[in-house]
Task: structure prediction
Amino acid sequence: MAAGRTRCPKRARLRSLVVRFTVVGPVRAWRDEVELELGPPKQRALLALLLVRAGQPVALSEIVDVLWAQDPPSTAVNVVHRHVGSVRRLLEPGLPTRAEGSRLVRSSGGYRLNADADALDLLRFRKLSESARRTAAAGEPERAAELFSQALALWQGPTATGVPSDIQTHPVFSGVDRELLAIAKEAATTALASEVPEQLPTVLQQFAAHHALDETLQAQLIRVLAATGRRAEALEVFSTARNRLADQLGVPPGRELRAAHREVVPRSTPAPAEPVQPAPPAAPPAPAVRPAQLPPDLPAFSGRHAELAGVHTLLPEGAEAGSPGPVVISAIDGMAGIGKTTLAVHWAHRIAHRFPGGQLYANLRGFDPTGSMMSPNEALRAFLHALGIPPNRVPTGLDAKTALYRSLLAGRRMLILLDNVVDSQHVRPLLPGSPGCLTIVTSRNQLHGLIASEGARPLTLGPLSPAESHEALVRRLGTDRVAAEPQAVATIIRLCGRLPLALAVVAARAATRPSFPLSSVAAELRESQGNLDAFAGADPSTDARSVFSWSYRALDREAARLFRLLALHPGPEVSAAAAASLAGLPLRVTRALLTALTRAHLLVEQAPGRYTFHDLLRAYAMELVQDHDPDEIRHDARHRMFDHYLHTARTAATLLAPRRTEPLPLSPARPDAAPEHLGGQDRAEAWLSAERVVLLSVVEHARDHGFPSHAWRLAVTMELFLDRRGHWQEQTAIQRTALGAARALSDRLGQAHSHRTLGFAEGRLGRHEEGCGHLERALELFTELGEAGGQARTLRSLAFLSNSQGRYQEALDHYRPALDHYRAAAHLSGQASVLNEIGWTHILRGEYEHALAHCRQAVELHRRIGDSAGEAAALDSLGYAYHHLGRYEPALTSYGRALAIYREISDRYLEADTLHHQGDTRLAQGDLATALTDWRGALEILQELNHPDARVLDGKLGQYRQSPHPASALSG
Result:
């Protein structure tokens, strides 16, 4: 009885707590007007799910499905129970362990969150909307429109903003978004039948900004704006929608949108009756979403007339007029060197104008002799990036990537060229799923699965006809020279087996010897014939190796050696400097040899100073190097190459961040390697940008060819560059490779660094549990090794993860021992960096005076040791704290000093970040024009860097463009 008396008052007190939630936009919760920290991402997502299903039981199986989709861990149910317990204690503090409470209760084999319309914005939205419908049915459209307007004013963005993106796209949340969108349209229709409420146009503009391609909503917004006398803005909405449809989908406005425009601009009036008021300056265009990725057409293309005529018939009638047409897949197959890629690229260029949505291209390297085949996952990531999806919004799984890719292509007329495919399975995830697209696929194999299942139209290429072979030689050698020796020409054609690649190599050789008769070329070619079963395909008369060996033997000794050694490079392209290190030769000599190989058509100069192989020639070079160069020679060449990339990458990383590069011990480069000196930050940035894809391949190549130490050190060296550029998925991939390499060596220092970099990258992608696990293991290893610097850096990474989850006190608890480690080591730069990061955490907590104190210390300490980059970072934080205190002039002074430093040291990303902050302060002062200038400057930099933050800033500018009240539009 006594126990009962003590429990009841407690239960009563729990129920008296006022708790409210929002899920129509960001997922947030308050208890007695104090906002709650909602915990890790999965816990936040669980709460969001319970909120959208408030008052209804949610089965445990459904919770697992939403949180983990198709790949739940074996511990999923236990994790759910743990998160449920945490949410209960969050909503009802003081609840005894295992007590059920009153808000989150068990129900029908799952859980139910009890909330009403006063506590949850979604329920309040539905209640107002239903009331509006009843009022409209009762014949009171004006009152109904007002109720709809009140409901829509609750909308703060897409449902469940803040949960991981792969969960937010689940139908349980996207279904709510569709419900809200339908209500917005219904509200507009109701309002147009009466007097439009004052706040409705602004709310509709916000909806329209997030549903920019919904023509019905855009049309209704035009009508609502016109009905409230805002005709100029209505015309601007039409113009913006028309341009966006053309740029992103390649289609004109539909019937409904055109009709709304006609209502605003009567047919008898070619222009608005009253002058259009000047609109705010337009924001720069969104990140490029009309890709044009086709490789250059071959100027000397000739022949294949019948094949071109055949593939041209695959295009549906009326395609020129813009009709969608069916999905068309053309599968071109044939042996290596037969000209599949050349034909596909030439045809694609001829018909590209029929596909206004753009062109995508991927060389899937299905037959690359180095084994560096591009996976569908990798190709999809590149395509999504080209279509404007920032790296942090790209889903992780293959199925999710494919679904997003097909969604982006829906309604667009695009041409996709998929080159060098192994088999049908290799290409299937890359096929579009809706009408209007043409996919061209090339492969050495016949793609029977694609033909049977997807209805691909096959085209098997054989050798050129004698006449086409003759035409190919004329295009390369000239009519007179070919006509002068018909018998020699016939012999060359026969010995080349009418293979386009072989003819090109022979013609290149003959073109460099214009005084030699073609009969001597034919004689030399005849002498070089040999057995080519590895490359000849089914036709033994097609003797490609004979042609290659003939051209190879014409090289001088050093050029031939370089040709062989280049096969050891992982690709996809090699710079002249890297080739010099690979060969152990001076750069000047190497450039001359590369020119000789290019003239002989044994290499292609893909871009100035960057070279690539045809995969058949790479295979031939690989055969040669394995046959002619012993293991020791190949090992030394690879060693020089890996030294080149590792030491040049270290130089670049040090130039970009002199005091932030990991102090990794490196052995000196071999004396016959020639790492690049770079000379300055601009060149360092350019080198890393140009070599990024190569460096990713080098990490794997080093691991696979006996250089695991180079592998993990190179991966860790690249961390800062990849992080600043937002290449977080690439980061996780190479850091996993690095971790495997370090484990193979039993190198605990390498494992510690790899765990730390991998954990930080996982956190960037929102995978906080995985990231925390890696970081905790890194901390254990650094502690065992006595590496104080590593411990401090790991603690800072743990603090970053805590801050990103809103656990600010936990972040401060990590920063304090990190600062102690740096102080014990007298590491002034580290101390200053941590002081700045502590200041930033106080900003996140709303403790701006505390933030000022720490950031000022950081500025002074960075300045004392001459750390310009650190000083600029601390100045930016200082400005941010001043801004939130309403002290705008000192904020602008701090930002201005930070920008001057960033521009001096060429740190483009952080320059953009500070410009963004400075624009916010300009807006707070009421200086809209300068704020827009700052934001556009930041956006230009981020788009140039292809950084995911560009999407956020572009959305911010888009909201301003859509809103007549910019301050309110941008306040979030």
Remarks:
- The chain has a mean pLDDT of 82.
- The chain is about 60% helix and 5% strand.
